[in-house]
Amino acid sequence: MYNPRMLEKHRHSALLKVTKEIGMKRGILALLVALSMAALVAGGCANKEVVKSEEAVVPKAEPVKVVEAKPEPKVEPAKQVEAPQAEPPKMQQAAKASEAELSFETIYFDYDKSDLRKDAREVLSKNAEILLKSKPDTKIQIEGHCDERGSAEYNLALGERRAKSSLQYLITLGVKADRLSVISYGKEKPAVQGSDEAAWAKNRRAEFVVAK
User: What order of strands is seen across the sheet that includes strand 205-210?
Assistant: First the structure.
């Protein structure tokens, strides 16, 4: 017999069963989704750790030091040393003449006299030895001088006599006459300025100068 109440009860039981099954499926589906999400999160963290560990293993490259090249020292060209220039002949002759004049000694005379004293003859002997041995080619000019007393004309003549007496004595000692000449300056070239016997004694003289 058809029983409506039993049919309704049967439908209700079937509906509950279906609802339970759907709920269970949804729960399983949610669980699966949760598990999948957890797996994805765990996988991402593991990848990050692996990357970090790999980064730690790779050593950092040290910066390359650039060594600046030192500039080469400049080599200066060698300076040319100029050879000393030879002195012109005239300068050489002047130098030789000055050297020779320093080696000859002056002789002195008594007042108003032109004869040779003993000390004058000794000096002339030394001068003659220089002319004969050390300077055999040198020519000498003998200068006669006087002190300031007397006239200019008289002293010029007196100076000439003094120079000639010196020349004659050198010739007797062996000096050739063509190497000797005389000149008188009288009182015009005093060796010492003064108007006393000490100055006059130095001015009465004969000097020996290398002829130019």
Answer: 107-108, 205-210, 140-145, 180-186
Instruction: Tell me the per-residue pLDDT of 19-66, one tens digit each, with 9 for 90 and over.
Output: 777 767 777 777 777 777 766 666 555 445 444 444 444 455 555 555
Least confident of 3-7, 91-95, 114-118, 208-212: 91-95
pLDDT, tens digit, 9 for 90 and up, residues 151-210: 999 999 999 999 999 999 999 999 999 999 999 999 999 999 999 999 999 999 999 999
CA–CA distance, 154 with 146 (Å, rounded to integer): 10
Tokens 């040393």, residue located: 81
User: Residue 7 to residues 10, 11, 19: CA-CA distances in angstroms?
Assistant: 5, 6, 18
33 phi and psi angles, rounded to 5 deg: -60, -40
CA dihedral (140, 146, 151, 153) in degrees, to 10, reads -10
Residues whose CB falls within 8 Å of the CB of residue 64, separated by 6 or more in sequence, listed in order? none
